[in-house]
Design goal:
alpha/beta; binds phosphoenolpyruvate; Alpha-Beta Plaits; eight-stranded parallel beta barrel; binds manganese (II) ion; four-stranded antiparallel β-sheet; TIM Barrel; 340 residues; 11 helices
Amino acid sequence: MIIIMSPQATEEEIEAVTNEVARIGFRPFTNPGVERKVIAVLGELDVRKADLVEHFQAMPGVARVELISDLWKLASRQYHPENSIVRVRNVEIGGRDVVVAAGPCSVENEAQTIEIACRVKAAGAKMLRGGAFKPRTSPYSFQGLGEEGLKILAKAREETGLPVVTEVMDTHEVDLVCKYADVLQIGTRNMQNYALLKRVGASGRPVLLKRGLGSKIKDLLMSAEYIISEGNHQVILCERGITTFEDATRHTTDINAIPVLKNWTHLPVMLDPSHATGAWQYVGAVAKAAVAAGADGLLIEVHNDPQHAMSDGPQSLRPDKFAELMRQLSRVAQAVDRYI
Ligand code: PEP
Ligand code: MN
């Protein structure tokens, strides 16, 4: 349920409504980013719904009370009809520009990371991606450089000015990753790690939330809800391919997810064509389809020597191929009134 205060409502009236929500056992939640004063009432409304609507409707300063039928209350467009824009340093995600974050799957060493960062920046990428904590299927595979990797990412940001997106896998590492990263990535395998979602919610740092391999769009939104309900509205959703019976590609891109998410939620939506396809040959086509379908951004793996990459070489674009793709993406973006 949301309580929409009238534009003339006084601070006292807003406070009285907020206190009343808490008094009767619900959690009042206000979004500082929303201009009109909207108070969300969080908790199980159950059978008391109709009475509560009437109760708050009668309070001074209240314009109207609306029920939100979506289960993802704060992520819903019913709660926040305008697109949300997530600001990361000088980059805005969810506005007119389509934002491309590019870089290696894993941070391997300083020279590699800085070289790739410079190349993707020159091609028009607005953020640098790279993993320091890697969720690998095998415990014997390269697990990432940890804090050393984070330091390298920070150095690459210093050199290029590109904000850094990097994964955090464990609640105990959130503070450490926050020291270096601009955006905390929650990987597909952790989409329903609720303790981690709450912890990154409490961090207040922008979060890139990747869809689980076998998760429905609705589950992705419920996970976003965990982050927002901790007071962190800076959530970017990311479709990265799901598991289906099809095995011609690593995963199956759910292109439908883009328009569905744009319809159901105000949050920005990105797509990762690298993990979705698992093969560099298909990355460009799927990236272009995503921009045409309305994605607010892309997450693309780029490596200067894919054959020797420590992870995900087969799906990594070489910098020159990435630059060529960016030129094409810019024309696709223009066709749908966006800009790259
Ligand atoms: C990644 O972006 O490097 C990654 C591990 O992605 P995902 O969690 O989508 O597999
Ligand atoms: Mn990867």
